[in-house]
Amino acid sequence: MLPTTCILLICLLSSLSCLTLASLNLNLTLPHQHPYPEAVAQEVQRRVNASLSRREMLSLKDQQCAVGNPIDDCWRCGSSWANDRQKLADCGIGFGQDAMGGKGGQIYIVTDSSDRDPANPIPGTLRHAVIQTEPLWIIFSADMTIKLKVELIVNSFKTIDGRGFSVHVTGGGCITLQYVSNVIIHNIHVHHCKPAGNTNIASSPTHVGWRGKSDGDGISLFGARKIWIDHCSLSYCADGLIDAIMGSTGITISNNYFAHHDEVMLLGHDDKYSPDNGMQVTIAFNHFGEALVQRMPRCRRGYIHVVNNDFTQWEMYAIGGSANPTINSQGNRYTAPTDQNAKEVTKRVDTNEGDWADWNWRTEGDIMVNGAFFVPSGAGMSTQYAKASSLEPKSVGLIDRLTVTAGVFGDPRDSSRSESYPGYSGGGTVTDGTTNTGSGGSSGGDDYFGMIFGNSAQPPSSSNAFLLSLLIILILYVTTSHGGLLSLPLFLTLLL
Fold first, then answer.
1. Which helix (H) or strand (E) element contains residue 354?
2. Across 465-494, average pLDDT
3. Are the C-beta atoms of 238 and 213 separated by less than 8 Å?
4. pLDDT band for position 429 (50/70/90)?
5. Which of 282, 279, 261 is nearest to 218 (CA)?
6. I need a labelling partner for 48 at 20 to 30 A (CA). Which of 116, 192, 340, 410 fits?
7. pLDDT at residue 454 greater than cutoff 60
8. Rounded-to-integer distance, Cα 209 and Cα 201, Å
């Protein structure tokens, strides 16, 4: 009986080991993070390629609507998007694609641009709409500029949809998403946000609480999840244009236009704040425009997918990080400034090279213009520093096409674009990196940026080994229950 007991113990320990190793490999530090971020990144590019392929098959008339941007093509080409606004919630991509916003809820029309009493907001105002507890799809009755007295605290399951009108949010705060989920912010201007607070603010119809002074972020995420910020124009804020900290995850930032700002985007609270390991953010189809300095984004920990964006200006660097974040840069155009000391896209902040050499920062299919260069590391290191190849004209054209509508619809789109608000005074090289999930080289056909995204196989299931161990235990139990002893050769046969 002793040999059989030992075998049973070995099988049980092996099954537990498999589960333990699987949990370590998944590294799930937040309850809502995706277990396989590489699969999410691959799905984004699959959808881009599908939209571009579909556009090529359309007639010239239909191509005027379908630009190849999978988000816009999902909802803009209908007969009347205004009669089916909530279709937008089905069009997300990346880590924030599950953000439902106010889908399924009633339409709330903002008719009053005032913000007279943040502790007791007036019905018809934006503040009254966003604090409600039920799902709401919030739209606007006319062009309006909403000058906030203090930060706007948004409740879960809300969509702020500015399509059809010119909507500006400015003043104190501005927009705060704290410990909420399923929020979509679409097609609004956010600018000139400044610190404000030290007063009572309503966060729901039944709760009013004291709030200290805000930082002056344009949009602030604090412990938020399933958030999608799309087609907004952001500029001129006291702190960050978008900051996501304190375990925020499941975020997509897409089709936005950023301009006139120093520290554009912060992802991660502090180098020592380990829950941000589970932060997962998709940054796609954005235009990082004029008079930007740094942090596009600046990352701490987490997995950041930067895909198909147009970086036209920076003064210090574009992408920075500390505390070992994963940076996956794919199919972007980086145009370096004239300053010879600011050509590098990347910056490891306050970290020695010996410490960041193993960080997974990779570049694939990125277009480097005016001497820009990306320094990869860790699993993102290719055999060459930054392999240069001839720039395919179609790649440049596709980046223009994917980002042509970045920002609020109706804003100017030319290269000299400049944001103005009422009341307020070519060529390059392509990078080709290798990753730990795919093979090097250039692909043709439908992979429009010549990128390699790894194979499409699903990650191995950790349950297989566990089920196999259970099967062996069952066989052993049946065999020993009838007085038989399992020989070592038979055990090895079953195991294999």
1. helix 353-356
2. 44
3. no
4. low
5. 261
6. 410
7. no
8. 6
Per the CB < 8 A criterion, the answer to whether 365 and 431 are in contact is yes
Residue labelled with tokens 């009633």: 106
Structure tokens at 327: 């940076």
Instruction: Extract the tokens encoding 186.
Output: 């679409």
Strand partners, 361: 327, 377
Name the token pair of 23: 């949990």
Catalytic site residue 295?
A: yes
Per-residue pLDDT tens digits for 27-38: 577 888 899 999
pLDDT band at 79 (very low <50, low <70, confident <90, very high): low
410-414 long-range Cβ contacts below 8 angstroms, 24+ apart = 410/166, 411/233, 411/257
Q: Which residue has the tokens 């952001």?
A: 234
Residue type, 311: F
Q: Which residues contact 407 (CB under 8 A, 6 or more apart)?
A: 231, 232, 233, 255, 256, 257, 287
Catalytic: which of 295, 300, 301, 401? 295
Residue 359 tokens, joined: 């960080």
CA–CA separation, 153 and 307 (whole Å): 30
In the predicted model, is pLDDT for residue 415 greater than 50? no
What DSSP assignment string belongs to 300-322?
Answer: ESSEEEEES-EE---SS-SEEEE
Token pair in block for residue 300: 């701490």
